[in-house]
Amino acid sequence: MRILVTGAGGFVGRALVSALAPDHDVIAVDRVCDGLAGADCRIWEGDFADPALLDQALADGCDAAVHLATVPGGAAEQNPALAFDVNVSASARLIDRVAAASPSPRFIFASSIAVFGDPMPTLVDDASPLCPRLVYGAHKAMIEQWIATMTRRGAIRGLSLRFPGIVARPRGVSGMKSAFMSDLFHAAIAHEPFAAPVSPGATMWLMSVSRLVANIAHALHGAPPAEPYALTLPALRTTMAELAQEVARQTGAAPSLVRYDPDPALEAGFGRQPPLETPTADAAGFRHDGSLEALVTAALRNISESDFA
Amino acid sequence: MRILVTGAGGFVGRALVSALAPDHDVIAVDRVCDGLAGADCRIWEGDFADPALLDQALADGCDAAVHLATVPGGAAEQNPALAFDVNVSASARLIDRVAAASPSPRFIFASSIAVFGDPMPTLVDDASPLCPRLVYGAHKAMIEQWIATMTRRGAIRGLSLRFPGIVARPRGVSGMKSAFMSDLFHAAIAHEPFAAPVSPGATMWLMSVSRLVANIAHALHGAPPAEPYALTLPALRTTMAELAQEVARQTGAAPSLVRYDPDPALEAGFGRQPPLETPTADAAGFRHDGSLEALVTAALRNISESDFA
User: Fold this and answer.
1) Interface residue of A134, A142, A147, A229 to substitute, partner B, most B CBs within 10 Å
2) 3-state SS record for chain A
3) Interface predicted TM-score (ipTM)
4) Quick check: A141 and B145 CB within 8 A?
C-alpha cells in the first residue's frame, strides 16, 4: 500500500512512519524531515500546502493518506488567519488532490477532541454535538465535514479520528496548549520539579503515541468507514494526580517534585474532560492503552526510543 | 441599525434591501448592483471577497450583516475550487472582518437545506444530522460551524438560516439546480408550455421571497440566537402537481401546458423532500407562507413588482 503522510516529521508522524515503512511504500511530507533520516520511505521536504510539491509527491498516485500536518491549538489562537490557510484551505486542497490521484483512496484525518468545545458536556459519547470554541477545533470540525462529503461522493474513503491528548510529546515549544501533559514525563525523567498548570483533580483523556499509531494503522487496514465518517477515539481518563503518581512510580522521581499551580483557562480547557463513551470506535476495533500503568510505560518507552529523551 | 448586505444585487438581496432601506442604514455590496438603483442605501459595487472593498464599506462599522452572496449549487458543482474560495474562504474572512468592525454584531448567514444531503432522511427535524453530498451543502455546513464558533467566542451574534426553495426567482441562468421551481411561474404567466424535470408527485419545500425577507428581518431584530446558532426555516411542503395546479388557477394558464419529464438526478436531489418539522424556528417566531394559495399569490406579486416580470 502506498501511503502519503503529512506532518511526517512531527512527533506523531515520525512514530507512524517508523511503524508503516517496513511494510508499505510511505510518501513522507513535512517542512522539516530531520527525524526521518533513517526511515525507509520517500521523503518530500516542503509544505503540504504547496501544490507543486504535492503534484510531485503524488505523481504515482497513492492508496491512502494520513493527514497529520496542522497549526495546533495554541498557535491557531495566536494566528487564526494562518491557521485557516493551513487547517482549512490547504487541507481541503490536499483532500481534493489525493482524491484526484487515485480511485477512492483511504483518507485518515487527524481531528481532535477540541471539536467538543469547552466547557464540555457532562458526558461525551457518539451522539455529542460538535461545539468548538477554539479556532483549532472549529477548523477540525469544518474539515471533518468536507471529508464526510467527499466520502459520500465516492471520491475518497475518509475517516476523521478525534485524537485525545497524546503523550509524551517532545519537550519544547509545540504550539500545543496541552503540552503540560507531556512535560510532566520529561520533568520526572530528569528528576526536576514540575509545576502542573491544572489542579490535582483535573481530569484528562490520554493516549500513548504508540497506541495512537496502532489505531491509525487499524484505520488504514480495517473495515471501510461508515456515516458520519468521524470517530472519537477511545481514551484513558485519568486525573492529573493519578498520572503524576504513576509517572513518579515508574521513573523513581519523588512525588513531591510535582506542585499544582492551576491556570483557570487551562483547567477549563483541558482539565475538565468528562466521562467518555466511544461505542462506535470500540466496536470498530479502536482501543485505548488499557490501563494507566500501560499508558505511562508506553509513553516512557517512546521517550527513551526517540531523539528527544 | 447599520446593516451590511452581501449579494445585495441578487434576487433575495434586492427584496431584502427594499424592505430594510426605509428604516435602516443599509450597506449594499454586490458585483452587479443595477437592480438597486432606486433604493435608499449605500451601494458598494464590487466583490465581498475583496478586503479593500470591505474595509471601505465597513469604515464606520456595522450593527449587523446579512451574508447572501454565494456560488450556488449547480455552479459550485461545476467549479468546486471557485466555490470554496467564495463560499468558504471569503465567507470566513467576511465574518472575521464584520466581527472586527463592531462589538458583537448580528450576523445572519444564508445557509441551505442542502446541508441535509440527498437522499434526505424520512423526516427532517431539528435533530437531523448534517449530511451534505453537494459541494454547495458542504460549504454551507462548514461556514455554519465557523459562525457558531465565532458566536460562542462572543465575536459575533451569529445565526445561520437554512433556506428552502425560494420562489419565484427571475428567469435565466442562476446556477441554481432548483431553478425549475421558479420557471414554472414564469411559464404560467406567459401561458407557455412547461416541462417539469420532476414527477407530479415530487415533494418540495418552498417559501416566497417576501416571506423569506420577513424571516430575515425577524432574525435581525428578534431575540439573540442560541446554540447551535443554526435554524432550519419552516417551509410549505407541496407536490409539483399541487403547485402547478395552483399556479395555473391564479394565472389563468391552462393546466395542460405543464407536462412532466423527470430527470432522475433532479428528482432525487429536489423532488424527495420529506415531512419537515422546525419546532425551534417556529417557537422563535419564524414562519412559512401559511398556505399554498398564499405562497403562490406572494410569488406572483413578487414577479409583477420586479424588473423581471
Assistant:
1) A142
2) CEEEEECCCCHHHHHHHHHHCCCCEEEEEECCCHHHCCCCCEEEECCCCCHHHHHHHCCCCCCEEEECCCCCHHHHHHCHHHHHHHHHHHHHHHHHHHHHHCCCCEEEEEEEHHHHCCCCCCCECCCCCCCCCCHHHHHHHHHHHHHHHHHHCCCCEEEEEEECEEECCCCCCCCCHHHHHHHHHHHHHCCCCEEECCCCCCEEEEEEHHHHHHHHHHHHHCCCCCCCCEEECCCEEEEHHHHHHHHHHHHCCCHHHEEECCCHHHHHHHCECCCECCHHHHHCCCCCCCCHHHHHHHHHHHHHHCCCC
3) 0.95
4) yes
Question: For residue A215, what is its C-alpha cell?
Answer: 489505531
What is the pLDDT averaged over residues A198-215?
Answer: 97
Nearest CA-CA distance, residue A100 and chain B, Å: 13
Q: Which CATH architecture has domain B2-164+206-232?
A: 3-Layer(aba) Sandwich (3.40)
Domain layout of chain B by residue ranges:
2-164+206-232, 166-205+236-275+290-305
- Taking residues A77-90, report their average pLDDT: 97
Q: Are A234 and A279 in contact (CB under 8 A)?
A: no
Least confident stretch, A32-41, A44-53, A290-299, B270-279: A32-41
For the stretch B137-164, pLDDT in tens is 999 999 999 999 999 999 999 999 999 9
What confidence score (pLDDT) does residue B231 get? 97
The three three-digit cell numbers of residue A104, written as one number = 477512492
Identify the pLDDT of residue B307: 52
Rg (CA), chain A: 19
Rounded to whole angstroms, the Cα distance separating B243 from B186 reads: 13
Residues 162-191 of A with CB under 8 A from B: none
Q: What is the mean pLDDT of chain A?
A: 94
Q: Does B214 touch chain A (CB under 8 A)?
A: no
Contact B154/A at CB under 8 A: no
Give the pLDDT confidence score for residue A282 in this predicted structure: 97
* CATH class in words for A166-205+236-275+290-305: alpha beta
Per-residue pLDDT at B64? 98
Q: Is the pLDDT of residue A195 over 90?
A: yes
Residue A268 near chain B (CB below 8 Å)? no
What are the C-alpha distances in Å from B191 to residues B188, B244, B249, B251? 5, 12, 12, 8
Cα angle: A205, vertex A114, A130; to 5 degrees: 115
Report yes or no: A211 and A205 within 8 Å, Cβ to Cβ: no
Query: How is domain A2-163+208-232 classified at the CATH fold level?
Result: Rossmann fold (3.40.50)
Q: In this predicted structure, what is the pLDDT of residue A304?
A: 84
Dihedral sign of CA atoms B192, B271, B261, B10 in order: positive
Which pairing describes strands B236-239 and B203-208: parallel, antiparallel, or unpaired?
antiparallel
Q: Find chain B residues with C-beta within 8 A of A81's C-beta.
A: 96
Rounded to an integer, what is the distance from CA B55 to the centroid of its chain? 26
Neighbours of B52 (CB within 10 A): 8
